Amino acid sequence: MTFKYLNKILKLTSVVFTVITIFQLITKQSLDNEKICELLALSLSFSLIKIVINKYIISKDSIFNPLLYIIVICLMIAASNYLFNWNMSLLLMLSTFIEVILIYICVRLINYQYEKIDVKKMNEILDRNRKNKNQQ
């Protein structure tokens, strides 16, 4: 059970971190080791929050789930601005919130592809099991 959640958290963290880093490179932000560690910590936090929201707060199928997640991420970025002394202007904060929405959409698309692959594998296993049952 714990391994299942750990696997989900690590998979989501890697996807979120990769997409955030790509967006940082596209927007020509400076990425030093400290900044990368901060982004990794934020990605892990975002993944943990997503798992907690899905498990304990709002159903995964609810329309409010992504909305709550995006709001929490925006609040975390605003808090990180002060915590990590990023000194972001109001305009930069607003553009970051737009980036958050774009990143969320990208991550959802990537996760959709992962889920599609998982469903395909499960269907193949089910078909193999049915075929083996019919042969016996």
TrEMBL record:
The chain crosses the membrane at residues 9-27, 39-58, 67-84, 90-111. The keyword Transmembrane applies. Keywords: Membrane, Transmembrane, Transmembrane helix. This is DUF3021 family protein.
